[in-house]
Design brief:
It comes from Tumebacillus flagellatus. By secondary structure, the chain is of the alpha+beta class. It has helices at about 10-30, 35-50, 125-135, 135-155, 175-190, 205-245, 255-270; strands at about 10, 55, 60-65, 70-75, 80-85, 90-95, 95-100, 105, 115-125, 195-205. The protein folds into three domains: about 10-90, no CATH class; about 95-205, Band 7 domain (Tetrahydropterin Synthase, Chain A); about 220-270.
Length: about 280
């Protein structure tokens, strides 16, 4: 069902009409005898019925107008209005709201159990859909938010420890938030809800594998650091030998060059400070 604008006039026009009916009822009852009394009763009832059409609409608030089960339209513009009398009007908030999901335990695409939560920022843009197409649109938003979050979490890995590439939950928060928002918007369009933002607020490995995954990350970091150190050490050794040979500081044969490379590599790569050894004799 699509939202449409309900018929309404300025509320002060309705107030003047009600006052006019009450005044006519008093005049008719005083000066009209029995027929006038009957007319006064009729005018009084019409005035009372007309009063039921008066409605105040606050900013960012809407009212769904129904007449004996039939949808007549919605009042969305703030102000004082007079609409169809004897109608049922249900309020629908158009304000922006936050919904924070509970921490969900799901498996990522690699099967690792993770804990994840998100905050959803939304508002109602179609009061008719929110009121009639779903049973309770607020509860609908809560359930669909958790379903969308589970779907996104199971579609991507928590982290990538190899070179396969692609988005991950940890390293690509903006891209994941965009995908979550798109997925959730598709689910909530039926309820007349617009998703303004969807972003992860909690992401962690589950307790049973957190320690093991931390060790794995530390091992990967150590290997990466070692590779960087070795790469730099090889460059430093190469530069040192080339400079010694270019400036003629010392003549190095293959055996002395190998020994010097070994000593420099040990001094640079070792985690401990190098301990010098004084050679009192000859290398040979």
């Amino acid at each position: 069902m699509q939202e449409r604008k309900a018929w309404a006039l300025n509320g002060f026009v309705g107030v003047l009409l009600v006052l006019a009916l009450f005044v006519l009822a008093i005049v008719s009852g005083v000066n009209g005898g029995v027929p006038g009394a009957i007319g006064a009763v009729i005018l009084l009832l019409l005035g009372i019925f007309s009063m039921t059409g008066l409605q105040i609409v606050q900013p960012n608030q809407g009212y769904v107008v129904m007449f004996f089960g039939r949808y007549l339209g919605s009042l969305r513009q703030e102000g004082f209005w007079w609409t169809m009398p004897l109608t049922l009007r249900k309020k629908v908030s158009m304000r922006v709201r936050n919904f924070h999901t509970s921490q969900l335990k799901v498996n990522d695409v690699d099967g690792n159990p993770i804990e994840i939560a998100a905050v959803i920022v939304f508002n109602v843009v179609d009061s008719a859909k929110a009121m009639f197409d779903v049973d309770n649109y607020e509860r609908f938003v809560e359930i669909q938010s958790e379903i969308a979050l589970r779907h996104i979490a199971s579609y991507y890995p928590y982290d990538t420890l190899d070179d396969r590439g692609g988005f991950t939950l940890r390293a690509n928060p903006d891209e994941i938030a965009e995908q979550l928002q798109l997925d959730l918007q598709n689910r909530l369009s039926i309820a007349g809800v617009k998703v303004l933002e969807a972003r992860l607020t909690h992401l962690a490995y589950s307790a049973e594998i957190a320690h093991a995954m931390l060790q794995r990350q530390q091992a990967a970091a150590i290997l990466s650091a070692r590779a960087k150190i070795v790469e730099g050490a090889v460059g430093m050794v190469q530069m040192a030998i080339e400079k010694l040979q270019r400036e003629g500081v010392v003549e190095l044969d293959e055996e002395r060059k190998a020994s010097m490379i070994n000593n420099l590599m040990v001094a640079i790569v070792s985690e401990r400070s190098a301990q010098p050894v004084v050679n009192a004799g000859s290398l040979y």
